[in-house]
Amino acid sequence: MYNHFRSLSIKDELTGLYNHRYFQEKLQELTAKGETLSLLLLDLDHFKIYNDMYGHPQGDKLLQELAKVISGNIPEQGTVYRYGGEEFAVLLPGTDSETALTVAESIRKAVSEHEFEGMKHMPAKRITVSIGVSTFPHMATSKENLLMLADEALYKIKYTSRNKVQLYTSVVDELKSHFDFGSREMELIQMIKTFLTIINSKDRYTYGHTERDMEYAEALARKIGLPEDEIKIIRYGALLHDIGKVEVPTEILNKKTKLTEQEWETMKMHVIWGEEIVKPIKELAPCLPIIRHHHERYDGKGYPDGLQGTAIPLAARILTIVDSFDAMTTNRPYQKTKTIPQAIEEIRRCSGTQFDPHLVEPFIEVIKEIRNAKIQQDVS
Prior knowledge:
single chain; Alpha-Beta Plaits; Hypothetical protein af1432; 2 domains; five-stranded mixed sheet; globular
């Protein structure tokens, strides 16, 4: 009798997989051992569209079938859990990140190639999943951290593309490998990493926004022929440009209505605060103009210093245009999202006023190239 009720308490009624409660128990148990453990977090792409099109009963059948496909593509030591809604988790004891990526890719491919009912009417003409991967203790230091890193990896895919596998990567750790920091500066870098985590928890948009800004800015810098050392500075400047938002109250960051004049003045201070946070790290001094001036305008009507034209550092002018494009094309509490053609039209309209006119057409070429590459990726 006990085993019967125990089974009921740890199994998901719909899919027959272990449930979220049992997942948390096993995660605690496995991380407590201190041994290598990889976690896959899977999210069913466009599930809302499927539910809206076919109804919830058919959506339930899709989840049941998906659970079987996932279960059929994991190694013997792995266990699948229904994490919640259209999300699933896989725990892989004794599995390093490289092997976990192989397992995740096997699941992604199997789902993508499986014949699900109704898939022909989905955006990619098939059912797909996105998968975030992290590993303990190589990347994560606790069960909570392991979950957070896999979730961040998954979130990055959902914002930039779908039907992909993403291993958690820390750009801050990458930054450490590119510069020769002293012990005091390493402490400050760790503080910046903590600040970025805090900002991510306060304003989830910032994490995905920063990643996209880095991609756009690096691509634009290459498009206009900048040397590698300048591209590197632009990449890390994009990473750090919103670090000052750690000082902005959450209620201002996430306000759904127009900011008051006082709130707007507080928001504008993030560029000053960001500069002050990074300034003590001498190796990152070339990033400071990007942090301070990425809200300047070509016509001199920006902030904080009202710089005009080429008085604005080129790296900051690059970030101004990519930052604005991403803000226009991403859901924000205070504005309606523009389509990519609408955003391109707006960028052209603001050429010479908000944006450097010499960067507008190269950036539009970059956006079209990135967009076409992602379309090809979705088709393949």
